[in-house]
Here is the input.
Amino acid sequence: MKNDFFTYQAQTTPYPLGLEVSHAKGSYIYDVDGHAHLDFVAGVSACSLGHCHPKVVSAIEAQLKKYMHVMVYGEYVQRPAVAYTKMLASQLPKNLQTTYLVNSGTEAMEGAIKLARRVTGRSQLIAAKKAYHGNTMGSLSLMGYEERKSAFRPLIPDVSFITFNTIPDLGQITEKTAAVVLETIQGGAGFVMPEDGYLSQVRKRCDQVGALLILDEIQPGFGRTGTLFAFEHFNCVPDILVIGKGMASGLPVGAFVASKEHMQSLQERPKLGHITTFGGNPVIAAACLATLTELTQSQLIADVQIKEKQFRKLLVHPLIKEIRGKGLLLALLFENTDVANYLVLEAAKQKLILFWLLFEPKAVRISPPLTILEEEISKGCQLILAILEAYPKRDVN
Here is the structure.
């Protein structure tokens, strides 16, 4: 199987980890040899309720027996999508009432960009340096990391960049700006938190010049920071909310959310202003509904802060220089890339799943399922500390 993987399936890096998966349940992924791997990554923040949560599986199975794909998005009334978007609206501020369901986070960002330009009649987009919003051409244009996008130029024009957490840069937001696009917490940069008052100042500046504020909550959304959405921590409500990853506990999905008035601009001039075949798929929408129901009717989100404190209490070691992030969206920062690489690779050998961050090579991601148990946190943290204690001291350029 591994040989076929390298032969027939396109690769994203020269050296993928290559774990051969048999099945997954709860906080564990099992390989074909029967070994259990403790998952501290959750499919890069996607498996919010862990692997194969019984309520999600039950919802998927029930919907499979009724119907799967029946029509392109927006034409037929399909109960799972309607019920989900109605419930989501009940959890959001009143200006975030209407949801457009798509297939992934990057597609959601594409729709949000189009919506902002359509609503404002302006073209300029402002994003942050070290930002990551996906890899389709529009999302890639907002990426604040030239090394990763230079090979694919030309990208969409009229995009400018500001430095995250830098108030003086907000003067670049003007009456020509259609939208400011920010991650509520910068993910690829190493889970960089907005400083006190920063996002509210961005909100204020957008209001002053008539620009829309798009917040990307693809990673921190759905309870991962201890509230349903991370913007709730920062006194800043976006005009367009972009979501994905943890929405469906591991199935492919994304969405952008705005006011009914704004979203109606995609209905005409031109009609079909944004279309998708599989967006709002009823099976995936059923998984979304089951996920949101469990998150909002259980203690999981309330327990996130308790679990964060446990991680921070246990992960104390001279090689760990800082723990960035919030809730169960954490990054261990080291002095150099060698330590980070050593930890991820040695942990894999010891059946603990860790992973890297896109733009911060000295960081290691910790984003486990929200369902992770306290004893599983202790087990994983003890492994991390033992690996760091065994780190071979060597000269690093």
The CA atoms of residues 218 and 296 lie 18 Å apart. The mean pLDDT is 96.
